Structure formats: C-alpha cells, structure tokens
Amino acid sequence: MKVAGRAIRVLAAALVLAGCGGGDVPADRAGATKKGAAKLLVIGIDSADWRLLDPLMAAGRLPHLKAFRAQAASGRMESFYPLEKSPLLWASICTGVEPAVHGVDSFVKGSDQKPVTGSAWHAPAIWDILGAAGRSTLISGMWTTFPARAINGVMVSDYLPYGRERERPLAGLVHPDSLSEAVVACRVDPQTLSHDQLARFLPAGADLAALEQTYPQQMQKLRDIWAADLGYLNVARRLKDQRDFDLFFFYLRGPDMISHGFYHYLAFAPADWHGDQAELATFKGVVESYYEWADEVTGEVLSWFPADHPTIIASDHGFYGPRDEGKGTVEHSEWGIFMVRSPLHLPGVTFGHLKLLDICPTMLALLDLPPAVDMPGAVLAEGLTAQGQDRVAHIEKNRVPSYLALRPAVGSGVVETDDKVEEEIRRQLRSLGYIK
Ligand SMILES: [Zn+2]
C-alpha cells in the first residue's frame, strides 16, 4: 500500500491548500461520504455540437437544455485529435492528462481486436482522486470501464448492454458486486421496444412493421443504441437515491452512435441524395429526434437535484456529418459543447471556448479540489463572478504537484471475459464505423 500512503499525503496537502476540510483524509477509500463537501453533477452527451443544438433550441425542441443554458456559462469546447476516438477523449476528460499519460488510446487492441479494458488506465480518473479524499462518485456507461473498478461509490461498466443472452451476467459489470442483480435488471432488451415507443424517432404515421421489413439494419441500430441508453437511464434512476454521491456522472453514448448511424440522412438534401428517397425521408429526422429524447433525459436527471445544484453539461467533440478530408470520411468535429452552472459562474453568459483538458481541472475546482501541476489544462477562467474569479485564482495558485500516485492498481483480480460478448462489441463498433 505504499502508493496509497503517498496518495493520501498528496490529498491531505490538496485539501489543506484548497482550504476545505482541514486535511483529515480518511485512510479508508470505501469510507462514507464527507458531509458538507461540494457536490457536482456532470451530464456527458457524446458528440453534442452547438451547430446541431442551436437551431433545435431556437425552434423550442430542446427546452431543458435551453433552460439550463440560461442558468449556465456556456461556450465551445475545443477537442483534440484523433477526434474519432471517444474512449481516448473521455479518458482525457476524466483524468485531465494526455493520452500518452493515461494510456487509453483506442477501442480495440492487437490483431485479434480485443476490446480495451479498464486495466488500460495508467492515470487516476476524477473518481479515484475523489475516492482518495473519502468522497464518492457514481459513474456509469463510461468508455473503457470494464471490469468495473473498486472505487468509492458505484461504477457501472460500459459492458452492461452486452451479453444479455448469457445465463449468468459477466462478473465485473458493476462495482460493488452487491448491486449486480439490481443493475442487470435495469438493462433493456432492444427487441422489447415497441413500435409505439420507437415511433418518436420516425415520421408521423409511419408503418413501423413495414419499416422493420424494408430497413432491418437501420431499425436494429436504432433499437440497440436506444436500448443501451435506456438501460443506463434506468441505472441512474435506480441508484440516484442509493447514496448522496459527491460526483454524479451521467453519460449518454447514444447521441454519438445515432449520429454515426443516421447523420448522413440529416446532412443530405433530397436533390443531393443518390440513394432511395423513401429511405432518406424515413430516417432524416432520427438524429434530431434523438436529441429531443436526450433533452428529456437531461431534464429528468437535472430534476433529481436542487435547482441550483452545481452542474456541467459537456461533450467530448462535436459532430457535423460525413465529409471527405482526404484520408477517408470524417464525421466528428473539433468543437464540442460546455455548459457550467455554479455559484462561481455568471448565468446566461457565453464564453469563447475552453479546451478538453480544461474540463478535469474545472470539475475538480467545483468539487473544491485543486488540479495538479502535471495536468496541462486550466480551470475555466471565463464566465466567472467576481467571487468566482478569486476562487479560481486561489485554486490555480495552490495546485498539488501530481495525482498520478493515485493511479489504479494494475491487474488486480481475475477478469472474466467472454468471446461472444467481445465479438458483439466489435460488431457494433464496426457497424458504426468506429473500427474496421
Ligand atoms: Zn465521442
């Protein structure tokens, strides 16, 4: 436990410097939530892009995101390359360090394309940093979190939607293990989604039975993607009262997957579309209506917390549809979204932009923890109240040297794998163009 000892000294220093709690860091990582500590809700919407959201907000189709924006400081988030790799970008958001340091750099590894597992993380994520300070996190569905790690709080891995036909769920879907049954019960079988439910994504009056016959692949994609998101929504509903988590991190992967599957229908005008016009008309509205659903979910998740609860809504990159950039088709864009509501921020202001690596320091600051000197990003310095400016200046002046000593232990415990589940994951990644 020499790492833990060092880690606790680092944290103790951090807490004293941040002026929040006198440095009495509980040695027990599974310790109870610290009372009165700052709390934060994060809603991650993979690939959300103002170019899509702005017109939908203006048209009144995203009322919850629009209302939240009025309460938040908001702006663009500058991502970095390779833009097409969500796992790499989210791991950078969650650790505040570059991919060369945190080690999560792809979807799959090796010639047999093994999905990259949680042991790839060589840097502590924000939940590890909080955990060492005796504070708790709920994180669910985040990329590269199988098997779920022993954190202070609950981690529901990104493998939850897979392997539903197994007799016994894969070990490691959730930490703690005791929640396994409850979490597995939250899964949604894509085939149980009714035509009435799916109709919200398709043209009014469409004959869904006929669409399933004519466009089986598209309909299955829609089912699979939505069912996975619905499962994680159920998980969040189920666990929100489990404990008063210091960091409640709700992540929606579906908007990115839906965009990979359906954005080309949105991007093409009928005159420029060389395929079947009926197909174009059928799926043209899927991406936008999926964002309407994501907006509803955002409203629901926000409603679980006090109206002024410190909250960040962010994406890891933007998305503006298929375009040719010389080396094949590119769909992601460099500009994601960022919104922050807190007592330190001015409501309704728009700032220029922040960078992806600024997100982790900014989350830490809102949780009353200083970033580390070896995190390249800065706490967002725009959109602040006068008090917020003082606070951010204080936090920036009092960075700790490094949190890297809190990195998760490698290779602890036996990882259960299942070739069928791995193939199921590869199939989905391939069908959406994430891997070849
Ligand atoms: Zn992404």
Q: What features would you highlight for this structure?
A:
436 residues; Alkaline Phosphatase, subunit A; two-stranded antiparallel ribbon; 16 helices; globular; binds zinc ion
Helices and strands in order:
Layout: H1 2-17, E1 40-45, H2 50-58, H3 63-71, E2 73-78, H4 86-95, H5 99-102, E3 108-109, E4 114-115, H6 126-132, E5 137-140, E6 153-156, E7 174-175, H7 180-184, H8 195-198, H9 208-214, H10 216-239, E8 247-252, H11 254-267, H12 277-283, H13 286-303, E9 311-314, E10 318-324, E11 329-333, E12 335-341, E13 350-355, H14 359-366, H15 386-397, H16 419-431
Parallel strand pairs: 1-8, 1-9, 2-13, 5-6, 5-8
Antiparallel strand pairs: 2-12, 3-4, 6-7, 9-12, 10-11
What does this molecule look like?
It is a single chain. By secondary structure, this protein is an alpha/beta fold. It has one domain (2-431): Alkaline Phosphatase, subunit A, CATH 3.40.720. Helices cover 38% and strands 14% of the residues. It has 16 helices and 13 strands. The protein has helices at 2-17, 50-58, 63-71, 86-95, 99-102, 126-132, 180-184, 195-198, 208-214, 216-239, 254-267, 277-283, 286-303, 359-366, 386-397, 419-431; strands at residues 40-45, 73-78, 108-109, 114-115, 137-140, 153-156, 174-175, 247-252, 311-314, 318-324, 329-333, 335-341, 350-355. It has a nine-stranded mixed beta sheet with strand order 7-6-5-8-1-9-12-2-13, sandwiched between helices. It has a two-stranded antiparallel ribbon with strand order 3-4. Helix 9 crosses helix 10 and helix 10 packs antiparallel against helix 11. The protein is globular and about 60 Å long. The chain starts with a helix and ends in a 5-residue tail after the last helix. The model is unreliable at 16-34 (pLDDT under 50). Bound molecules: zinc ion (ZN). Zinc ion binds at residues 46-47, 86, 89, 256, 316-317.
